[in-house]
Amino acid sequence: MAEESIQNLIMSAEEYAQREHETPYLFELEKGPKFLFYFGSPHIKDPRSLIFSQIQSAFEKAKPDLVLVEGVNARDNREAVNEKAKSVSQDEAIEMAGESGFTLRLAITNKIDWDSPEPSNKTLYSYLLEQGFARENIFAWEVMQMLSQYQRHLKRGGFKEFIAPYIERFKKQTGWLDFNYAYDQALKIAEGIIGRKIEVETETNSPDFTDPTPWPDRKDRQTVLNKISVAESLLRDRFMIEEIIKALERYNRLFIVYGASHAVMQEPALRSWFARADF
Asked: What's the pTM value of the predicted model, to 2 decimals?
């Protein structure tokens, strides 16, 4: 396990709120035979975006032997993910999974090893309960998280239909007794927290509902949904630092494509670890 002092160097949400940075946010670390290229990307699913040519160029520069991408649930179906990535076009990969889908396809078609260093959903939900968050609020948070993702899709078929399989997955992974997993219930809880009706098909502020960053102009309007996101983000960052360090024991050249905020917040810990490491 990485030293606790390294983990403690991950930037807090409050520190990040005071930090200005460009997006995409890129940095490189190199020591001895080890090289890490971190591409902190915006979350985008528009194949016309120039971000994808930038990722392509960075990938070619990095010449990785391992690629790490955000948010790909492949613990039990890795081969299915590989086959899917090979079978779809570049545009289809982007429309399905944004920069992660594009980068994953890039790795697989170039026969480069890949991984997605994410804690399991079961681990996440258990952690959130341990942090004192109520089941109802975790459920509402899960649905609001997916609302933000849904609204990044260029092709939409209705949010209630879109969210149905995710709610079913959430139900299986939590297994809470005497709990109402209905979509309408999640929306009702979220509206109670936010304090107004949510128009899921036309909502323009859905990213703010679960944004973990306490921006100065919105800090006093943060709700329990934002606080859940803070806890989730820290868990994921700590887990990822562990997995990056493990990966560097097996691989020499890492190419990482994650959200820009993760890149910025993890950078101090990764720089410190590289400075201390003896390769």
From this structure: 0.90
